[in-house]
UniProtKB/TrEMBL annotation:
<dbReference type="GO" id="GO:0052689">
    <property type="term" value="F:carboxylic ester hydrolase activity"/>
</dbReference>
<dbReference type="InterPro" id="IPR037461">
    <property type="entry name" value="CtCE2-like_dom"/>
</dbReference>
<dbReference type="InterPro" id="IPR036514">
    <property type="entry name" value="SGNH_hydro_sf"/>
</dbReference>
<dbReference type="InterPro" id="IPR052762">
    <property type="entry name" value="PCW_deacetylase/CE"/>
</dbReference>
<protein>
    <recommendedName>
        <fullName>SGNH hydrolase-type esterase domain-containing protein</fullName>
    </recommendedName>
</protein>
Length: 389
């Protein structure tokens, strides 16, 4: 278990969030020095590299705001055997900055640490439920992460960060894109109640977004949020997932705040877009005309910000008995054709790529098995498009 403790003074080497040798991956707001580095999109990661002179803890000073994280500590060159330790933990409720022990380095050597956010902006995407039912400790109450500093063993020296991957991909989508429910392992966690009360069922490092980035050796940014649609969010009449649709969030640094705006200085080589399926999770789906207009508008916005990137629209991955994930395929394909751009393509993940016999995640979301099969299908096509051998 990752330990936390209130802020107290200890002998250590403190590295502030804005040190130039602290490396960030994903959308992060760093303008507010009082609140540190702030973020809420999934798979945002913070990495450091340092030389330690002794055994001791690696500590993150942060308000994790009830989000779930993975912490990976690995050795680069130690006197003893190679060292690697990974821990997954859920932070305490928002509002208190705490010291979180991410791992223990065993002795002298050079180490790398990566802290990654596994949950989405509000892990079920249902911020209205706590307001109406008083469930302040449950879903929708994860806040924006506020990362303040690292604390390293006494005598440690911060080193330049590891080189970034030369390839860059951005992935945009809904629940499947951020690993919602991917870690569900029993039926109790597959109910609506499981979604409301259990952070441990969500893990973005199991989903196809992370798998593809790892396989392609690419830096990844993920803008994904359960229930978000193109024109209508899922169950739109109930306002379960809010009014703002996915395209309306794409210029934000923080998914849950209209400011600061994202500057689009980070330019991906490829953008993978899985948007439109949630429009069908309504009694009256979006009309063909509205769908096409909204989809092409989204592609124009992406093309404006990324003039040379491949825009790879995708849809699908249904099991043979449940075709819902493929319902939007025809409309997405026609919208991409209407967009008429040589670097904009559509890929349908066919029905049956995933099996009815595969382990299921929460509320019929893909488990790691399903995400792996989707990654197996997409990887060679992306490599061919991009010329990535």
């Amino acid at each position: 278990m990752v330990m936390t403790e209130p802020l107290i003074s200890k002998e250590c080497v403190r590295v502030e969030f804005n040190d130039p040798n602290v490396q960030y991956e994903g959308r992060v707001a760093k303008e507010d020095s009082q609140n540190g580095a702030q973020y809420d999109w999934p798979l945002v990661a913070i990495s450091i590299r340092f030389r330690s002179e002794e055994a001791g803890p690696v500590v993150a000073v942060m308000d994790g705001a009830f989000n779930r994280f993975s912490a990976l500590v690995t050795s680069e060159d130690t006197v003893g055997p190679a060292f690697s330790e990974k821990r997954i933990f859920t932070a305490e409720a928002p509002g208190t900055v705490r010291k979180v022990v991410l791992g223990q380095v065993p002795g002298r050597g050079v180490y790398r640490v990566k802290l990654a956010k596994l949950t989405e902006p509000c892990h079920t995407g249902m911020p209205m439920l706590p307001r109406y039912f008083g469930m302040g400790w449950m879903s929708g109450m994860q806040g924006v992460v506020s990362f303040r500093a690292w604390e390293l063993p006494s005598g440690s020296t911060l080193l330049p960060p590891p080189d970034r991957p030369q390839r860059r991909i951005e992935v945009i989508g809904g629940s499947d894109t951020c690993g919602c429910g991917a870690e569900s392992s029993d039926t109790r966690k597959r109910t609506w109640w499981g979604a409301f009360s259990r952070n441990e069922i969500h893990n973005a490092e199991l989903c196809y977004s992370y798998q593809l980035a790892t396989r392609l050796n690419a830096e990844v940014h993920v803008e994904a949020w359960t229930g978000k649609g193109l024109v209508k969010n899922a169950f739109n009449l109930c306002n379960i997932f809010g009014k703002e649709t996915l395209p309306q969030l794409l210029d934000r640094t923080l998914a849950t705040s209209k400011s600061p705006l994202w500057d689009f200085d980070w330019i991906p080589h490829a953008v993978l877009i899985d948007c439109g399926g949630n429009d069908y999770n309504n009694a009256k789906p979006t009309s063909e005309e509205d769908f096409s207009d909204a989809y092409t508008d989204m592609l124009h916005m992406l093309r404006h910000n990324y003039p040379e990137a491949f825009l790879i629209s995708m849809c699908g991955g249904s099991t043979p008995s449940d075709h819902r994930r493929n319902k939007a395929a025809g409309r997405v394909s026609r919208a991409v054709k209407r967009f008429a751009d040589d670097k904009a393509v559509f890929i349908e993940v066919p029905i049956g790529i995933t099996s009815d016999d595969d382990p299921q995640g929460h509320m019929s979301h893909h488990s790691e098995v399903g995400h792996t099969k989707i990654s197996d299908f997409l990887e060679p096509q992306i490599r061919e498009l991009m010329g990535w051998t």
